[in-house]
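# step 3/5: fold
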Amino acid sequence: VRSIVGCKNPDTGKIGLSVESINKGVFVCYVEENSVAAKAGLRFGDQILQINGQTVAGWDKSKTISFLKKADPSKVEFAVRDRPFERTITCVKDSAGHVGFQFKNGK
């Protein structure tokens, strides 16, 4: 778990990220290039555990965005778990020279 401290952009009032709620966790799904969020070190796939000391487990996207909008523009502090869903996939060709994926039951 790492701590990230940033602020809102003084011109837009935004941090420069989008979040999604997945399995009762809040995850960063987009970080705008050169934004406050990017400069502070937030990355796609990071799990947000706390915002300004408030635990966000179980929050949906709208509650998270609403909380961020109301946050003090001069300081926003995140507790973040580094990319818990990050995976490495190695693909190899079969004897016919094909590479492919097979999904079963959405997995």
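# step 4/5: annotate
Residues 42 and 76 are 12 Å apart (CA to CA).
# step 5/5: archive (pending)
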